[in-house]
Amino acid sequence: MGPQLQSSAQVLIAEFGEQRVLAFFLVLARLSPLFLLAPLFSSKMVPGRVRGILAVGLAIGLSPVVTAGHAHLPTDVMGIGSLMTKELLVGAAFAYALAATFSALAVAGSFLDTSIGFSYGGLVDPVNGNQSSVLSSAYSMIGLLVFIAIGGDAWVIRGLARTYDVVGLTDYPSLGRMVAGAGAAFGQVFASAIEVAGPVLLALTLTDAAFGVVSRVVPNLNVFQVGLPAKVVVGILLVGATMPFVAGWLGNQLQTDVGAALQTLKVG
User: Fold this and answer.
1) Less CB within 10 Å around the terminal CB: N or C of the chain?
2) What is each CA distance from 261 to 27, 88, 100, 139, in whole angstroms?
């Protein structure tokens, strides 16, 4: 197997050239985190083999474009290892900024599940393959549908291509800026979740307060028996009413995230 692999590598290098083959693998390294973290590209609904084929196809298409006009790539082991590590970090930073937005949608759904009472039941989220509750899965699925409807996949690919204008194949980004950007994206998850779920949470809190007042006025009323169905109805109605807002928020947030990711990747 070893001699066969070595022979195949030699044929590949002889056919396309050492620099082109190296550039292809560097581009593939930057693309790979996209298929592990980014929305839609990392979805468990897409088989792993299909994701691998898409990653290779995108790398084949991007590598001739991003290598045009670039300096000679190093061919020593240390130089290649350093560039590969840098490419993986750049791709992971870009994909993480996008994944944080969809994590905010899932967290918003979890807040509402806990408030309404849906958290007692659970199911497997088909987007990320994890156990989650009803509204958390619903927000993830709706976010994915909005992402497809607004052409988010094209935005992500164009954004990734633009990272080469910021950090070329032989350039190195500022590590401190990348870490600060990742921390800011993580902190924004909970703030964004409150922003998405806030109107519904406020209405549910007011509903609880109203039933608390009713229980004082009518002590014989079984508040738990009446209140839970009422909260479910109010919650579902308001979730449906706020969906256009969530769709608009997601579109704006994706544009902001791509811009923020590019800012954090500036060469140090």
Assistant:
1) N
2) 18, 14, 11, 24
